[in-house]
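Class, discuss our next protein.
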Amino acid sequence: MSAMQRRVRQWKRWLVALVVFTSLLATAFHSKTYVPPVQPADAVNATLVPDYSVKPIAYIFPQYYPFPENDKIWGANFTEWDNVFQVTHNSLGLETIRPAESVGYYNGLDFSTRQRQGKFLLDSGFHGAVYHHYWFAGKPVMDGVIQAMLADGEPNTPFMLNWANEPWTARWDGLDASKTFIAQDYGSVEDWRKHFDWLLPFFRHPKYIRSEGRIQFLVYKPSHVGDLGPHMFAAWRQWAMEEGLGGLDVIETRWIIPGDKWNQAIPDAMNEFPPHLGDVDGSRHSLTNRASRIYHRGTLVCWDSTPRHINDGQGAPQPFCHPKSFQKFIVRMLQKIKEEPNPRGAENFLFVQSLNEWGEGNALEPSMQFGDGYGRAMKKALEISNERHLWPDQRLREALQRTLELKGSENPPLDVCVLVRTDGRHGVSSTFNLPTMLRSLIRQKNQQWKAIVFEAVTALPGIEELLYRIGDLRIKLVTPPGGLRDENNATDWAISQLNISDSSHCGSAKYILITDGDKLYEPNAFSTVIGAEGTLLGMNTESRLSIWNAENSSHIAWEDRCGRLEMIPKLCSSAHPTSGPLDLSATFVSLPHLLRKRTKVSQLISGFANSSLEWDWVSPFSDECHVLDSPSYTGCTRMGTFWLDSPVYSETGCYTTPEFQANFGARITEFDLEGFRRSETATCLKHTKKKYCSIVSCANTTSSSF
């Protein structure tokens, strides 16, 4: 260091000391300490706490134009369309999904094609797209589409890249999986930098997707990178900062399959990419637990890999694909995202596979079979979620506001005390579950109720967290003493804990409703008790039995199956106790009368029919439904599952795809799958006419006027 440099450094030190001394001196002469102005809470929130949001992202598959590697492997001008052309039907006898005339068998490089795809995504409610990116041993492959997008801006949507990092093998075509066409080699730091530099033009694009200011980059199979993965990703993060990108997050795709045990390092974020969650049924994908601090949900449109398995016949068609089913799955997934979002400020992406995986029967784009149904379904699902589902901060505000209102009123009348018996059968993986049941209480028009939830027989794992997410302080969890693992005994104990003299407790209610965690209550159900008199007030229930009894179900013509369920004016029946045991879940019981008589639950269930109790029964005043049993057709259709309208009572009921395949997989061709696909609602399935007439003599059935 020269003498001049030393003098400059010394002058800087003196200058800093002078500034500090002057500041201290000024403070000493001031009579008041300076206090910065306090901003209003809403101003602080607006500047420091970003709003929650869900941003749907669709995968785009690029193999729809010829490129050298494919020409060498499969022959000149090979594209994905070659696979799609070669088959027309799958192993279930259903047509394979094909593009609508408005879409055609396009070239993925065409400007008009990419422009149409971008417009379709935005019109369908998507935030943007994620492109599959292929990089093998130091060079890109099949990058024509993303290079074209970089050059001319179409599709004109926000985007990110997904590194499909597995070796390129013949497995996808059903050939020898050990046959590798292009090997994958992750190389050294120099190779990582080469890959990063190639990606830089995309990362610098103004439409590249970020979260909390950081570039978002997906890796399809992180376990394949091996022990080098965490070091490679760390290098990319460092280079992203050095290049002024604000940082980079690696979103690692989650695999839930045997043999994939990637847990080498804590990921920046994870995403779901079915079918790597274990199956291809979209209704189950929202049920997996979060596996990282930043976690992005994912689902698929459909699944039929028949075109990819021309050589071995091992295509796996999903039999119940339909835009309406997809819409309900998306609504359910949006609800799950809003129940447990990423930390505020981080994005919540919903990855949908895919815009155009036609070789897997997995395409949002308009098809010959469904038109633009999937795009419309996506948009409708987003609208429904915006109307129905709240983010955590909104739920918290509502819960606190409701509590303040209840405390602020003077002894508000309590119409109904709800005792909810639950157990391990009512978890979120069940079609009819406790969270859905409790939300049906919250939607009641008559809000003068409180609820007590208790585990009656077996434990329901995570019940405390579940109730917290429901976010209604009127719902209280209690625990019966050990040894009361009998449903009726546990219920008697819960009733004994009610304090009828204290208006702040459930015991001050006019009526008690003893129910289970798999029931659903229509919004008008609790209005039944307003102004009512009587010790037992009945409700109307829709159940499998009431549907069966609505007509002579064993003598219905095949043509009327399924359609009749939308036309029958009354699927419900009154819970009148004279025909059998009292249905507690459909009966409001006078709580003061119950406590005075000290009636046990078992006596209440059986005693009325035997005329051994002093109770008076009041039937429902209308035919409208109040309770949806498990299973019920109406409840089934709301939950995104489908109803099997069978002439065999034991078969009739509500099914998810895995449940149906577990029960009828070997007989699946006995059912009218094509009719299900052609239906407008995708809510009901029936047998083929041939099978139906072998069960029920069609000569003895009667067609109605439906």
